[in-house]
Structure to design on (219 residues):
């Protein structure tokens, strides 16, 4: 089997990880594994997992490493992840990064893309973010009137995520600095980290990422 393309996308909340991963899945024919999406889907479905994590998600806290590591393990065992994956929102702690290494074995993480955006800009983006509850399409609060609160892609309700309220935003960004920012040095030491300016149009960011992936001979 050819080597797996395991790409990790790091960056603050609102840096554009999800948007970029969605654009790259077709290019590289590997799935996006977003722990946030998996957890939100569980909350929406009202499953036992969803009931367990809903309070943590709403407050902007972090779900336990143990639980998230297991979710990723299960997801990686599905057929579509045999050729690799785009990890979005995982790993978020050093413990999770070590769990990912153990999970991937010899065929480890190939590249870590750090989408770099200032705290002021992500705070602004998150505060004005609205999202389709069904398909996850992202809108701005200024779009809501034009689309009457209904997603143009799937007709789902467009809402503000509970964790995009000011207090939860602050908490998430604090947790990013405390728990996730140390991962930058962790991957830098291994020569895997590439920082991309996230303060450009989504198209420009995608172009920059594609260039790095190709320069490294990964795809
Ligand atoms: P954001 O990066 O904007 O906070 P995500 O969609 O990645 O959004 O995650 C939403 C929430 O899901 C997080 O605030 C956290 O509660 C939980 N979560 C997602 N991924 C992880 C993870 N790897 N470890 C712990 N909690 C997570």
């Amino acid at each position: 089997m050819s080597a797996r393309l395991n790409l990790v996308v790091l960056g603050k909340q609102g840096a554009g990880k999800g948007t970029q991963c969605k654009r790259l899945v077709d290019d590289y024919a590997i799935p996006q594994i977003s722990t946030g999406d998996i957890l939100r889907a569980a909350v929406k479905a009202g499953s036992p997992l969803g009931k367990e994590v809903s309070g943590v998600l709403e407050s902007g806290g972090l779900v336990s490493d143990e639980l998230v590591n297991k979710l990723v393990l299960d997801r990686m065992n599905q057929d579509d992840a045999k050729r690799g994956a785009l990890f979005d929102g995982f790993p978020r702690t050093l413990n999770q990064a070590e769990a990912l290494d153990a999970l991937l074995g010899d065929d480890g993480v190939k590249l870590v893309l750090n989408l770099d955006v200032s705290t002021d800009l992500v705070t602004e983006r998150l505060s004005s973010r609205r999202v389709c509850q069904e398909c996850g399409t992202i809108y701005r609060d200024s779009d809501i009137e034009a689309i009457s609160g209904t997603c143009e892609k799937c007709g789902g309700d467009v809402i503000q995520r509970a964790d995009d309220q000011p207090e939860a935003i602050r908490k998430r960004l604090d947790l990013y600095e405390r728990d996730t920012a140390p991962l930058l040095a962790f991957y830098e030491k291994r020569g895997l980290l590439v920082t991309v300016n996230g303060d450009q149009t989504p198209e420009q960011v995608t172009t920059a990422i594609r260039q790095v992936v190709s320069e490294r001979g990964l795809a």
User: Anything to note?
Assistant: Residues 13, 35-36, 39, 56-57, 60-63, 68, 89-90, 92, 96, 163, 172 surround adenosine-5'-diphosphate (CB under 6 Å).
